[in-house]
Amino acid sequence: MSFTAVLRSEWIKARSLPVLSGLVALMFAATVGFSLTGTASLGRHDAGKPGFDALLISFYGINFGQLAAICVGAVCAAAQFRSNGARIWFAAVPRRGLVYSANLMVIGASTLLAGLPTAALCFFVGQPLLGEQRVRAEDPAAWRAIIGCALYLALIALFAAGLATVFRNAMAAMGILVPVVLLLSFTLGDVTRDGGLIQFLPDRAGRQALVHTPSGTLGPWTGLAVTGVWAAAAIWAGWETLRRRDF
Questions:
Q1: Which of 61, 184, 186, 230 shows the greatest Cβ crowding within 10 Å of its Cβ?
Q2: Biggest distance spanned by C-alpha atoms of the chain
Q3: How far apart are CA 149 and CA 115, in angstroms?
Q4: Which residues contact 13 (CB under 8 A, 6 or more apart)?
Q5: Residue 83 in contact with residue 173, Cβ under 8 Å?
Q6: Single pTM value for the model
Q7: Nearest-angstrom CA–CA distance, 200 and 188
Q8: pLDDT tens digit sequence for 159-218
Q9: Measured between alpha carbons, how far is 69 from 66 in angstroms, rounded to an integer?
Q10: Extents of the domains making up the chain
Q11: Exposed/middle/buried for 211, CB within 10 Å: 0-12, 13-18, 19+?
């Protein structure tokens, strides 16, 4: 069976998940909603203070939207293991690498395509709320942040997909990643600060793309690359588990 045919079947399988569209919508709503709320309240309150980043504040909601992205990746990857469904898929397509690659492509593309309009709305609707502190659209950092936000959400979803494949369970993957990207970020402080090894955590590194002028060791694209390495490691672990496991 060709990769195109397998990709089409994975897309149909993903669309058949009742929860998937809701999770993508939740990612959009949480990211945009909390970003605009944060920009309107925190932005005006903290504007002009040392360390205030007018660009980063427009993407405040990514703290919550990334949780939905994690759920998208974990649920889509783990769905094929429910009720021994993997036996059916691998009987139809013995080349497990094709199924795994197609599944990851559907997850990554879906999250990326949803993330682009999400990020654009966060910026173009949120920035006017900052008045004189706003970042203009012609600023190169603005478009870097929009693209970086979408890439970050896609990488986090793929990270979750890799872990869900390892454990064959969406809840296990979410149970690991949600505390990492939520509790550690809020506990350890502002993403704009140089925190030593802390800045190499997947969420802290990737969100450097949203900072107007990063001050740490990692830049915007190197930060995303670090998140990509985390995602690649999880995907590789998922593949090794999938390749060796009997169904």
A1: 61
A2: 61
A3: 7
A4: 79, 80
A5: no
A6: 0.91
A7: 13
A8: 999 999 999 889 999 998 888 887 776 676 555 455 567 788 899 899 899 998 887 788
A9: 5
A10: 3-244
A11: buried
